[in-house]
Amino acid sequence: DDVTSADAVDAAVAAMEAAVTELAACSLVTRGVARLDSTVGVRTVSVHRLVQGVVREEVAREGVATETRAACVAGLARLVAGNDETYDMEYQRSAAMGELARPHAQALLRSHGGGEDARGREGELWQHIAFHCIETHRPAAGEAFARAAVHAAGAGEASEGTSADAVDAAVAALEAAVTELASCSLVTHGVAALDGTIAVRTVSLHRLVQDVVREDVAAGDGLAAETRAQCVAGITRLLPGSVDAYDTDYQRSAATGELARPHAQALMRSEVGDDVRVSERVLWQRIALHCIKTHRPAAGEAFARAAVHRGGDDVAHAPRQPERRRTASDAAAVAAGADNVPQFALSDDVTSVDAVDAAVAATEAVVAELASCSLVTCGVAALDGTVGVRTVSVHRLVQDVVREELAAGDGLAAETRAQCVAGITRLLPGSVEAYNTDYQRSAAFGELARPHAQALMRSEVGDDVRVSERVLWQRIALHCIRTHRPAAGEAFARAAVHAAGEDEGSEGLADALHTCALVLYEQRRFDEAEAMYRRALAMREELLGPSHVDTAMSLSNLSNLLCEQRKFDEAEVMYRRALAMREELLG
Fold first, then answer.
1. Average pLDDT for residues 144-156, to the nearest whole number?
2. The whole model's pTM is what?
3. Higher model confidence: residue 169 or residue 356?
4. Can you point out the beta strands (E) in 383-505?
5. Helix (H) or strand (E) segment spanning residue 465
């Protein structure tokens, strides 16, 4: 039964165990254990196949089916996490519980529902399962559950904007036209994969037909502008219109952008009159944004300048900042720690577009110079199925020579180490939100950075650079937590505490202690984690005050830990404090 108080929970569990024992004694059920992670499992029950058949027949009787289905829905809903915070705090167990629930939910979904009155009750379950599929990076598997949730909520309302019927009619008309053209061999069909689960149907026009159409368009009065406008509108619809689209579904947004880019390039190469300037600005901006988000800003420059041109050339251009020439020894020194250094990590940390272009160009020139002398080799590290980053690996002998020079140079080692720390820190996501919005890329960047951070940690370091390295160690520890390897992050988390120093008045030390507590919590070392959490909470209350978002976070995380220790009364007090803070601060 779904109960809340500790005594009622114990009573419900005892009653259930007695019932299961009685059934097992009659060989009607068998017991088992499903592992949630390396330390925790849950006891499971499997009903004998013949008994399942009998029960289904009884459930089919009028009235019993609805009641039994409701009990199933309530039980499954309790298994599945209903928000992203649960997955954030303990991904492995939340994902494992969701996987236990999913086949049962699928069986329920395949069966007939319990009528209109059961719709609302089941909507929550379908939403939870759909959310589980999103959090475990299988959104396609969650689509049926998401649509079932919409249906359960009642899908009879007329949608605003374009209706589903109108969309279906437009798609049907388009398919009929394409089929007719294909029957005459004027077009060929194809499929372009967007990711591992979704593809879009494509159409390629016969080359001879393309030439004829271009001639007709060039000769027709007003036809060229009209046709171009249709092309611009169609290509613009392909492209994500904001950074948020890339953050929430990077792989599909990047793949769709890649489909659009060659067509946009062809449009840009063709002539265009002043009368269509403004209408094309959005297209060029979106293509430029696509190039930025797929780590090819140089390829996006022409589109960005075209957007400025289409919008009118009355904007004063800011003067280009003078380039700071990086020497080959600078780049070699930064890259000497390990192989596969992302090339953009060697560039200066700048913000303006012109300065970024200058820094990237300078770094590329240096890398090309080093490669021509066989001092480095260039490569590509894949971030996901569609995007990679260029990397540089320094020759082993060169690494040894550079290390010897660094060890001998007065002050040079500290300066080079600072460059390494800055470059590696730029690779790493700085918050949990980055992993939530684009897990695959954030995890891939973290894996590129981790071996370099390990090489830095193994080397000697003076007290004078402690504080500047704290952020790097915290980010690596966070990466290890988010990629479900908390034990690997412990050394980095403790290095962050060490780097922050033992100054009790340091906000950085409070952050480092909080990160270290997270690492210990994920390893289920609750007593050690509790001491760290309490110390971080006390410091944040003193430094930031009792009403601050970070203080609320410390309270909430400590409450989660106390629940794991079954200290429910103290956990409730802290949860209420955290909730009151968030209501006051966030509304």
1. 75
2. 0.45
3. 169
4. 388-394
5. none
